[in-house]
């Protein structure tokens, strides 16, 4: 019979890092966000799977780790999901065949609520049309960390995103991204309304899909941010981009595809189901 045990985060860190193809040192920053860890052991004490909770601003917690591939993967994944769900009823996880196969999540009663997508293609050249009442400028001209915090908060209601700790702000905004091509949008009051970050490697660039404050979605500001970044990238000789998105809507994805990008990867995000007594049905949270 498999044994399920709780472990200190640091004790399980090597196994978790290995699951993601990372070293312990590379995974350390992620580990600082983890709160609870469970492992499934076989009769000989061998670890068959590890899962950790990573708190999410609006979605309870993300499940990190999973069950190792093999004949027992589905059963082990089921035990891990049950253990985590007993502690935190609001959970989500990526349907990854190397960790949490979609079949295991479906068997546990979870349902698809979003996706991670990777799009790629030639750098779009359509002109950016900023909605009236907003302005867009490079992060290099927006040095106030409070602005970065407000801009990054535009992502926090989206499943798959996490709050950025103040001590991680430089990495999240400038160190990992190019401050001259990444941009922040401001309204007329000077309040940050959105953000789009990009990093350049030779003639290619990777972009995080724009974040826009919830009341401003559907105004065209999201695409204006993306195209503003692409314009700056073109001036730097970038001819090809990748665009990563977590929890974006089908409509937003359609807007990105209309710019000439194509889907390279799409990983569904599943969420645990909870009882909705007002509706008398079970629904994803």
From TrEMBL:
GO molecular-function annotation terms?
A: acyltransferase activity
| Residue ranges occupied by any N-acetyltransferase domain in the UniProt entry | 134-280
Q: Which Pfam families match?
A: Acetyltransf_1 (PF00583)
**Coiled-coil parts of chain:** none
Query: Which InterPro entries does the UniProt entry name for this protein?
Result: Acyl_CoA_acyltransferase, GNAT_dom
What is this enzyme's EC? 2.3.1.-
Keywords from the UniProt entry: Acyltransferase, Transferase
The protein in question is named GNAT family N-acetyltransferase
């Amino acid at each position: 019979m498999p044994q399920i045990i709780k472990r200190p985060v640091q004790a399980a860190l090597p196994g978790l890092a290995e699951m993601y193809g990372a070293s312990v040192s590379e995974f350390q920053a992620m580990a600082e966000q983890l709160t609870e860890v469970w492992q499934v052991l076989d009769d000989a004490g061998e670890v068959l799977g590890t899962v950790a909770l990573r708190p999410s601003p609006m979605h309870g917690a993300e499940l990190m780790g999973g069950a190792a591939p093999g004949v027992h993967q589905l059963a082990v994944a089921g035990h891990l999901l049950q253990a985590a769900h007993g502690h935190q009823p609001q959970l989500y996880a990526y349907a990854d065949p190397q960790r949490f196969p979609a079949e295991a999540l479906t068997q546990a009663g979870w349902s698809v609520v979003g996706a991670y997508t990777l799009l790629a293609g030639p750098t779009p050249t359509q002109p950016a049309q900023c909605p009236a009442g907003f302005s867009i400028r490079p992060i290099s001209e927006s040095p106030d960390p409070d602005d970065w915090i407000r801009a990054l908060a535009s992502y926090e209601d989206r499943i798959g995103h996490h709050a950025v700790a103040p001590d991680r702000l430089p990495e999240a905004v400038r160190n990992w991204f190019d401050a001259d091509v990444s941009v922040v949008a401001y309204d007329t009051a000077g309040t940050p309304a959105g953000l789009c970050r990009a990093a350049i490697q030779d003639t290619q660039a990777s972009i995080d899909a724009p974040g826009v404050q919830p009341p401003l979605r559907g105004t065209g500001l999201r695409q204006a941010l993306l195209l503003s970044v692409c314009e700056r990238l073109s001036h730097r000789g970038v001819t090809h981009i990748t665009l990563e998105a977590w929890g974006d809507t089908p409509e937003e994805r359609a807007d990105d595809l209309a710019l000439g990008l194509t889907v390279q990867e799409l990983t569904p995000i599943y969420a645990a189901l909870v009882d909705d007594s007002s509706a008398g049905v079970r629904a994803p949270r």
